[in-house]
Amino acid sequence: MTAYSDLTAHFGRIAALSNAVGILQWDSDTMMPKGAAETRAESMALLHVMRHGLATDARIGDWLAQAESDGALGPWEKANLREIRRLWTVDTALPADLVEASSKAISACEMRWRQARADADFTGLLPYLAEVLNLQRQIGTAKGEKLGLGAYDALLNDYEPGGSSEKIDALFDDLAAFLPGFTQEVVAVQARRPGTPALGGPFATETQRALGLRLMAALGYDFERGRLDISTHPFCGGADNDVRITTRYDEADFTKALMGVLHETGHALYEQGRPQGYMNQPVGAARGMSLHESQSLLMEMQACRSRQFLAFAAPLMRESFGGSGPAWEAEAMWRRYTRVEPGFIRVDADEVTYPAHVILRYRLEKALIADAMPLAELPAAWNEGMKSLLGVTVPDDRLGCLQDIHWPSGGWGYFPTYTLGAMTAAQIFDAAAQAEPGILPGIGKGDFGPLVGWLRANIHGKGSLLSTDDLLTEATGRPLDAAVFKAHLRRRYVEEV
Question: Topology of 166-495 in CATH?
Fold first, then answer.
């Protein structure tokens, strides 16, 4: 056990550095004054280099060889070794100067993106984003050589271990063929429904925040290990046992920020439910981003846009904002939260049109990594794709290719996990509701205990003990099946109206 103990101690130190980076990144995105950006970038770059140095320590290979021959290790320890070897293989593919250059480029690009997004100025962001893209290509190529993968699949592997663009292409081509016709069918069905009265407003930010905190508590969020703040782009971040989420508020419409809070709470519940005994080890990490996105979309889409939840939440909304009349009834809230209407913004998209936003980004980032499209042509290609997939005409780049922080922050290969997550969410929720009959009645009373308890036992508490496919099969009885997602959409948007 000596070699294994040496590995766990070493990766505990790596986790501690990662936690420091997580808090500094959260601060950069929420509270840091603009004037501190250059200094913060230097600090972040140094921490990334230090972490990379630990992650590529030459002793890791020797420790792995010794520990893997130890027949006394249990399943969690063996899985931890598997994850350590996977991470070590990837980390040793990158030279320290590339890690440092990427960190600095990302910090500069993120800060410039905030201004560029506000000004709808892609030209001003272009040189910063070009540098990030250039370094991501280098990173993807270097990792791919070690993993036997193409550059894009090597980047995808960081977010979805075992995933492949070949499988995603087939899935997304199928969805791209299914969704336009289905969307038209849904719009036709909704046109026959009664109209949804306007809620009025304005809705004070502090009141929205108070309602969000109240519902976070109902979902089971542990405020002793996290907090809620504001950022330009909503996210879940922080550190182990310090899981922080953010949202953005619009005083003309409280409904978007509220669902944003519930979405990020789903991410946070996954992080807070990871196995404490392995919290600082690779085996204790969340099992890939499709599963992570499944947990946020399970809470937001499957649970909190259900009739059961809105019957519970509508009276709380009325109480919070002093609302009255038909617009504040539970059925009106359900119609509002299940309204299907193509739009510009991914994070505000409805459940039916959301996959089209992801398909577009996935296709574009694949082309950019492959150098099959000049970066300067991104706005035009984006706008053309939005017209083709969603039928909308993008008025400016703020509502177009500048809306997401993922590419400026180096998150190339992340986007497909959103729709993989939506499919996974439908499958997990369906299995949970069948296995635990108290889940839906509980949601109707604001009691998420049965649902979160099932998720803790079957998803959260498993960490990275199993592969994504094995975890999903064990939890739901089958590997990922797109038919479950399609059946959910048809049931909610066509059959249950």
Answer: Neurolysin; domain 3 (1.10.1370)
**pLDDT recorded at residue 1:** 62
Mean pLDDT of the chain: 95
Residue 406 is assigned to a ligand binding site: no
Is 267 annotated among the ligand-binding residues?
yes
Residue 160 assigned as binding residue? no
State both tokens at 263: 């979405």
Residues facing residue 226 across a β-bridge = 243
Supply the pTM of this predicted model. Answer: 0.90
Q: Assign a CATH topology to domain 2-151.
A: Methane Monooxygenase Hydroxylase; Chain G, domain 1 (1.20.58)
Q: At 21, list the tokens.
A: 């980076």
Write the pLDDT tens digit of every residue in 11-57.
999 999 999 999 999 999 999 999 999 999 999 999 999 999 999 99
Most distant CA pair in the chain, distance: 70
d(CA 215, CA 209): 10
Residue 210, judged by CB atoms within 10 A of its CB (0-12, 13-18, 19+), counts as: exposed
Strand 242-247 with 226-230, pairing: parallel
Catalytic sites, residue numbers? 264
| 80 SS3 class | helix
Bridge partners, 244 (sequence order):
227, 237
